[in-house]
Amino acid sequence: MDVSKLFDKLPPHALEAECALLGSLILDWRVCGEVIQIIKSAEDLYKPAHAAIYETLIELYDQVQSIDMVQLKQRLDDKGLLDQVGGLDYLIELAESVPSAASASYYANIVREKAALRRLIESAGQILDDCYNSSEPVGDLLDKAERAIFEIAESKSSTDAAELGELLQETYDHLQSDEGMRTGLETGFIELDEMTNGLQPGEMIIVAARPSMGKAQPLDAKVLTPDGWVEMGALSVGDALASVDGEPSRVQGIFPQGQRQVYRITLSDGRSTECCAEHLWRVHYRGWDEPRVIDTARLVQMLERKRYQNRLWIETFSGEFGSDENLPIDPWVLGCLIGDGTLSGTSVRFSTKSHTVLEQMASRLDSAMTINPAGGYDYRIVRNGGAHCAGVQGVQANPVKEVLQGLGLWGCDATQKFIPARFKTASRSSRAALLAGLMDTDGWVERWGSMRFCTSSVQLAHDVVELIRSLGGTGSFTRKQTTYSYRGKTLNGLPAYVCNLQHPDAGEFVTIPEKQTRISARIRQRRLNIVSIDPVRITQTQCIAVSHPSRLYVTDDFIVTHNTAFALNIAEHMAATTRQPCAVFSLEMSRQQLAQRLLCSRSGVDSHKLRRNMLNQDDFGKLALTVGELSEAPLYIDDTPGLSLLSLRAKSRRLAARHGIKAIFIDYLQLMSAPGSESRQQEVSNLSRGIKALARELSVPVVCLSQLNRAAEQREGHRPRMSDLRESGSIEQDADVVMMLHREDYFHRGEEDYEDTNTAEIILAKQRNGPTGTVRLHFHGSTTRFHNLATQPGGY
What we know:
Elements lengths: L3 H5 L6 H13 L4 H4 L12 H17 L4 H10 L8 H9 L8 H30 L4 H17 L9 H13 L13 H7 L7 E6 L7 E2 L3 E4 L2 E4 L8 E2 L7 E19 L4 E5 L3 E6 L6 E4 H8 L8 E3 L16 H10 E2 L5 E4 L3 H10 L4 E5 L4 E6 L15 H8 L14 H4 L3 H15 E3 L5 E5 L2 H13 L3 E13 L2 E14 L10 H7 L8 E19 L5 E4 L3 E4 L2 H13 L4 E5 L4 H13 L3 H5 L5 H15 L3 E4 L6 H15 L3 E5 L12 H19 L3 E6 L3 H4 L16 H4 L2 E6 L16 E9 L5 E8 L4 E4 L8
Parallel strand pairs: 1-25, 1-26, 22-23, 22-24, 24-25
Antiparallel strand pairs: 2-19, 3-4, 5-6, 6-7, 6-19, 8-9, 8-10, 10-19, 11-12, 12-14, 13-14, 15-16, 16-18, 17-18, 20-21, 26-27, 27-28, 28-29
Helix pairs in contact: 2-4, 2-6, 2-7, 4-5, 7-8, 12-16, 16-17, 20-22, 23-24
């Protein structure tokens, strides 16, 4: 057996370096102060006897400020460890193992490196064991592994203290250089640069503002996802959401708001949802050039004024969501059968006098099926060649009938019909085809262009209204009592439910030419006016941050509702104007959305016009020039959601090594994660300390966005304070600079008597090495851009 192979399995260690280190400490106690900055724990020594001796030596140094052989022997004897460590003879052997204590720090570094390797091996082994044997969720295992490696990385020693003379000479040399006039990086805001002398290397700069979300809904409110409805309380960070225009959107943050008074907001077609008083809405009014974002409380006040009643409206949903997975039948065929089919008896039948409907039915059915006349306007859907097949015993089942049975529709009479749930969450094209099938049978178009659908099933009426709303239209239904004559008497029949449907592209929901002709005459589209807002209950609520650039998401009844540009303007100025390499870690927006915002901000093109593709030739010219300009900017964007401190440090070091980044921007602190923290406050504190350490390590300014709580909104004047920093444990203590954004216009949105000033204030609440004060800027809302007051919104 090769004995040398056994030594390869032993953990990394350096017994000779440990002996030399202990001998140096015994020979000269004055090197202890240098050694303990490197070896912070006795556990760093591999041999238990050496660990006991080192711990005792440090105790003597700490308590009596001296070490000699007599004191060491007596302290070990008092602790009952003298014989365990090898007795007095071994202590003498250690002292004689080195000629002097001059190389103590060299030995200490060797010991520390071997200890780090052992911890790394131990952590890796534990990670392997957990991966093979643990039943914990993968996310928990990843957090546990990340925490273990991070603790090892954090254990490295700090840098040595520098002599004042050296620092003074470095400072004087820098002042004499060309860079001496401004020691930090320019932000592009003249007054701010004057007060801060630019963003300083190694500093942590907090830019705090109220979150742009500002919304809260009950936990049982419904939120639309690509696959259907999910309750607000069941959402998780990263979940995909449906959006107002069909573009990708995800949950970027979840913020519980506790028990709050909620209000029911009702729209003109009868749909409604619940929200809190601070919930935001993107509202249109005929007297405004563009929509405004207004909270519920302000809307209540506005609706008390006659000029706003039935004149404030919100935009409709595009209808882009859903999946066609597992749809067992053509949606248009199903719509026809629900609308004017007989869903019971021995065969599948439907009625129509339209040749168009017959032709479509024949083309959309499976090739194994055919349509046979059943008298008058009635038809049967049967198998080709009949239900009997040569060589097959008995009667073959009708596939269409089997599908209707599986959907729960077979056996339903006229009062029990409904639209199956899976078809209400199908793709937009399938939902449109289903509605077309319903309209082609039991629907009609008034001579003035309005669509109507009639049914004796109240559930089907609800479903049809839901269907048109899911497609971006508006709808409601009314109950009408039908009558009939029998033997000269007028009797009440089944109640009829007439659905009133509106859509700007209503022509896609009918295929019969006569109906399409009437549809084409329709011009006016019904708006979703806000009719009433009433308090309803007090319940648990939460708000969410969404990644869609508009900050809009879709809630109950397909209602579109609303969900930090200053730091981005600084990053853009550094990278595009002064050509300083910068890194942006965006946890709230995707890199594509961030690039779009930068493009609009620098070009001066309205971001809302760009999202809706309403650009003119002049806009395209501006964008083309800006694309060329920004393409050369050394700006590096990382949009990893839920970024951890460990990942931030690793990515920042890599960017610094490859691209020499001069500044780091993080949007925003509260969306980062710090695994292993006992509470949210401790987690934020750990993040804050880690970010400050990163700034010092890379010697670059780290600009970190943070949220303010709602205290400022309740305060007269609304001006924020440092105490308003959200979940603040040590943010204001760790930060070198704290800036707070304040826009008084934000608190008067929609007020008729208030004239927007488009002015923003940068409140410099803390500056460790400079004055505090206020800087006033111009804010251009449509491009989310801040400017020096002397600069016009379009100029640079």
